Amino acid sequence: MNQRGLHHETAVAHSAAAQAAPNGTVRLTAAQALVRYLAAQRVVAEDGKSTEPLFGGVFAIFGHGNVAGLGEALYQYRNELPTLRAHNEQAMAHSAIAYAKAHFRRRMMAVTTSIGPGATNLVTAAALAHVNRLPVLLLPGDIFVSRAPDPVLQQVEDFHDGGLSANDAFKPVSRYFDRIVHPAQLLSALPRALRVLTDAALCGPVTLALPQDVQATAYDYPADFFEPRVVQFHAPAPVDHEIAAALTRLRHARRPLIAAGGGVLYARAAEALRAFATQHGIPVAETQAGKGSLAWGDPLNLGALGVTGSPGANALAHEADCVLAVGTRLQDFTTGSNTLFTQAEVIGINANAFDGLKHRGLVVQADAGRALAALSAQLTDWRADAAWTQRAHTLADEWRATVDQLTHAPQRDNVLPYDADVIGAVQRSSAQSATHDIVVCAAGTLPAELHKLWRAGRPGAYHVEYGYSCMGYEIAGGLGAKLARPEREVIVMVGDGSYLMLNSEIATSVMLGAKLIIVVLDNRGYGCINRLQQACGGAPFNNLFDDCVQHGPGAPAIDFAAHARSLGALAEHAAHIGELDAALQRARAADRTYVISIDTDPARTTDDGGWWWEVAVPEVSPRAGVRDARAQYDAQRAARGASHDQARAGSDDPAGGPSANE
User: Fold this and answer.
1) What is the rounded distance in angstroms from the CA atom of residue 98 to the CA atom of residue 307?
2) What one-character DSSP code corresponds to residue 157?
3) Are 303 and 286 in contact (CB under 8 A)?
4) What residues have CB less than 8 Å from 290, skipping those under 6 apart?
5) Which of 125, 274, 593, 612 has its CA 20 to 30 A from that of 392?
6) Per-residue pLDDT reduced to its tens digit, 549-579
7) Which PROSITE patterns did the record assign (predicted)?
8) The pTM is what?
């Protein structure tokens, strides 16, 4: 049947259903009602003139718990709400989350699975969305409410509570959870779900568990429940007394610093941030989620902040007397395990007061753009000390020059490249790489190197999931970003460990025509955690292939290019950086997903920058290396504790502060 026929068939079905029910109601199954409601939600497009669907589609892997009810409803409304098939439940949820991230939370997707392992495979993704404050609607199948067939296939039974199912595991990792035990319940559950998904303070995963019999049960719904509706996104406006308190603190500051987090991007406040920083001469450092808030070349952009930060950003953060934390939850990688802002009073501007109150900060609960505008309007002629601003300009220029050197280093024969060399090749491969490409990554060493070295020229150019640091997000996340931004080149940078964990959505990307460029850095194991293991005094153990228990043929020599070709992608292996440069040009010209693998050094990282990160080392061990590492750990904790206490007492020169190169 052609598209016109499909639209006609759907229209006839809608009409027949509407005419069959009396008193302005429409008789639908719960599954039909849910899908029709989602399809009716609209959002103002980026052009500000037209509207488009709020939900870009539904990723679905069908099983007995959702194929008859929700599956039939998705088929009926497939033109209004597209259904996309994936290959792994966790991966398709990652794709849906990445889609929302790439749209700065203004558009999103739903995900449906069957009961049992399909549902529990979503729990990791739900946690990822929760930590990163990103919207996704999870629709797992569930047990029968009637209990007539009990237990059903794949049911997890609780010995003490007959009302529990495996889906109750979603409760701690959902911002809103509901089990739909009657079709009428959707009349309250769906608006509540939508509010959470579109509220800046509440935003995160929503789980609606769908018992199998309820999915198929019909109910007379009010017809106007399904009228198209333009969704309004909610973010709090600043309140006067919080702005006044922040103004008092700022006016006394001579050495302020802005820590720009993901909330800047989600509030679409990049221009407000640039204007505020420029007007008041305040240097800006970026968190992982906030990278791209300020253009790479902006004179006040010091680069990455924290454990994976640039030397200049961390030096000024350690000396700042006031840190304006905008849209960041100040996790330990940003604050150096709470040792970086030792001289600073913190002002937390955040739509969520819970996040704004971190680091004992003074909170301004508000949309980032509106809060910055309210502050700037009353600061008038106040600026940071001129010497402070000038020092920021100098440090920012020096770091940009250093990055250029690190990513263009000459290659030596018989020496494996490391991550900075590969990053340099990727950015060299396009004259527009800083403004057009989207780089996607998640776990391991690469996020640290990208945070320091990637030149993000616009909001959204940097797409790294580091709130949950979830191995396996990379390729699935790249797919979601490409579905959201099909006009952009999406480059996934992934280590061999994450690739082996979750690579199935390469096949999905080929099937959907969502071309990715995937660069696999093969260091033959978990190189990042291997270095951390040794830094904590441990022996190399169970991370790199060479240090794992092996029998028979031993560790395999994995041909990632051959594997990718088996999933339908184009692929090749680059023997060195020169070959990578050429391969990237072929990848950009290709018509489908293109995978390039290259061998890299598992031990080497960029020495410049960084900060202390607290990882607890065992107090007792038979190994001398661990005992030595514990002694060093105790000394570092004592020094940082003394530094923190002295700074709080008012000293401008705290003793024992960590080096910015640590």
Assistant:
1) 24
2) P
3) yes
4) 259, 260, 261, 262, 263, 264, 265, 326, 327, 328
5) 612
6) 999 999 999 999 999 999 999 999 999 999 9
7) TPP_ENZYMES
8) 0.94
